[in-house]
Every structure is written in structure tokens, then in C-alpha cells.
Design goal:
It comes from Streptomyces caatingaensis. This is Lipoprotein. The chain contains four helices and no strands. The chain has about 170 residues and is mainly alpha-helical. The chain has a domain of about 110 residues.
């Protein structure tokens, strides 16, 4: 005679096991979803910081260009610093006006008439930009923080050199 088993309440997985497994799956999914959301928020904040740094570098570059246009005699002093600012803008991913046609061109910065005041204005612009970058370090992702710190240090050196040259 063949033995047949009838289904009883005790056979198969228990309700408690299924519920525990389902709860664990929900917790795992919920945790990873929250983590992804937080990571996405941090990534977006980092991109906003990077975009701001690129904008600041582009504004600083425009100040150098306006000063060079107004005071050709300062070209020997300013061209090496301007070249570094251009590299900083590239490092932050600054878009050129040709690359972003929808952006309205910014008005040219005003430049003082005498060379000494023009150098002082550039030094102030470098100092303000460097200070802003140093303040942003606390909220920047690690890689961007290293870049911001490096460029802030270079900006502080530029401000010093422009002040000494004045």
C-alpha cells in the first residue's frame, strides 16, 4: 500500500518564516532605496558645487581678460596667472560661451583706470573666490574637496602675488 501524505498545517514553510523573510526583504529594499536617494542628493549637491566653482572661475577669467584689455602693460605679470585660472576653469568643467549658446553673456567687469588699482581689484577678486572655495570644502564630496582646496590655495597665492606687484 502506498503511503500518501496529506497536507497538514505543519507541513511546508511556516507563516512566521514567510513573514520574517518578507520583512527582511522589505527592510533591505527600503534601506537601499533610501541610501540611493541620499547618494543621489549628495551627487546633485556636488554637481551644484562644481558648477558654482566653474562659474566663479569663468568670472575670474573674465576679470583677467578685461584687465588685460584695459592695461596691456600688465600682460607680462598677468598672463601666467590668467593661464592658471583658465586651467582651473577647465578642471571644474567650465563651459565656453560657444558650448552654451543659451546662456546670456555676462557683462564685462569694470576695470579701474590706473594699473595699481586694477591689480588690487584682481587681487580682491582672487581672494574672494579663494575664500568661497575654502568655505565650500565642508560640504564637498572628497574628490571635489581636494580640487577646491588646491584651487583655493592657488587663488590665495595669486592674490598675494597681485598684491605684491601693486
Amino acid at each position: 500500500m502506498a503511503l500518501t501524505r496529506t497536507a497538514r498545517a505543519g507541513d511546508g514553510p511556516r507563516r512566521r518564516t514567510l513573514l520574517a523573510g518578507g520583512a527582511a526583504a522589505l527592510l533591505a529594499t527600503g534601506c537601499s532605496g533610501g541610501h540611493d536617494r541620499a547618494a543621489d542628493d549628495r551627487a546633485r549637491a556636488g554637481e551644484r558645487l562644481r558648477a558654482r566653482a566653474a562659474h566663479d572661475s569663468a568670472a575670474l577669467l573674465a576679470a583677467y581678460d578685461a584687465t588685460l584689455a584695459a592695461h596691456a602693460g600688465l600682460a607680462g605679470r598677468l598672463r601666467p596667472l590668467r593661464a592658471e585660472v583658465a586651467r582651473h576653469a577647465e578642471a571644474f568643467g567650465s563651459a565656453t560661451p560657444a558650448a552654451s549658446p543659451s546662456a546670456a553673456p555676462a557683462p564685462a567687469p569694470s576695470v579701474p583706470r590706473d594699473e595699481r588699482s586694477a591689480l588690487a581689484a584682481l587681487a580682491d577678486a582672487e581672494r574672494r573666490t579663494a575664500d568661497g572655495r575654502a568655505a565650500a570644502l565642508a560640504s564637498a564630496p572628497p574628490e571635489l574637496a581636494r580640487l577646491l582646496a588646491s584651487v583655493a590655495a592657488a587663488g590665495a597665492a595669486h592674490a598675494y602675488l597681485l598684491g605684491v606687484a601693486a
